[in-house]
Amino acid sequence: MPVAIITGASKGLGRALAEALAARGWDLVLDARTPEVLKDTAAALEAYGTRVAALPGDVTDPWHRTGLVTEAGRLGGVDLLVSNASALGAEPLVRLAELPLDGLRRALEVNVVAALGLVREALPALRAAPAGAVLTISSDAAAEAYETWGGYGASKAALDQLAAVLGVEEPGLRVWAVDPGDMATDLYAAAVPDDDGPRPDPAGVVPALLRLLEERPASGRYGAPALLEARS
């Protein structure tokens, strides 16, 4: 069966995608920083009859990244690498004039450096896969200027550029950056705690990601709403 590595997989979009893949028979290697929540997620996904390896840790740790790829190798390889783990840089978000530089460094380390480090670890297995793919979760803040979202948006813009170049350098793979649009996630709640307005469930974005896997369009940046609209 195909094998996916998904970071930030214990909650939100990461968990929703993991569940959809488990229901389709994929084996999974899951990462998150909170062991208890990740363990519960893995147990729920194993009910689909798939193999699930849950490795708690921080994606900025190179040994943890190596462990994720090694575990995937034990399951048969790496067919899909999903970089979903993210850091905001400040919680709640603040204007650039007040953004702690250590917070910006953390956002860049998690959202950009760690994502590239994991790709580099997984590249041999991805190249050997029948249909290797890399999926990075972007944001509209990577392309639009939203007040207080500058540090996070800059990190996601950098991730978009890495994904774009990787798609050119690795023509045998598919490399997609996806802007999922608004979602009700813990990340958004931490970013803007005063905004308690209704937002879509992350599970609603998953059909857009599955469409990419099924149709394998060219490497590039995609918006989930457009993918969903085209499918309906």
Automatic annotation (TrEMBL):
UniProt KW keywords: Oxidoreductase
PROSITE patterns named among the record's database cross-references: ADH_SHORT (PS00061)
GO molecular function: oxidoreductase activity
Plastid found in the keyword field: no
EC code(s) of this entry: 1.-.-.-
Pfam families reported for this sequence: adh_short
InterPro entries: NAD(P)-bd_dom_sf, Sc_DH/Rdtase_CS, SDR_fam
Broad class of enzyme this protein falls into: oxidoreductase
Family listed: Belongs to the short-chain dehydrogenases/reductases (SDR) family.
Protein name (database record): SDR family oxidoreductase
Native source species: Streptomyces parvulus
